[in-house]
Amino acid sequence: MSSADRNARVEVLLITGGHAFDREPFLAAWQSDPGLHITHLEHPAATDAIVDGSAARYDCVVFYDMPGVDPQGPARPTRLPDGVQSGFERLTREGVGLVFLHHALASWAAWEGYAEIVGGRYHFWPASLRGQDWPDSGYLQETEHELRVVAGDHPVTKGVGPSFALTDELYLCAVLEDSVTPILTSGFDYTSENFYSTFRAMNGHRLDRRGWSHPPGSNVVGWVRQHERSRVVYLQPGDRAAAYGNPEIRRLWFNAVRWTAGRM
Question: ThuA-like domain location, by residue (predicted)?
Answer without folding.
Answer: 50-260
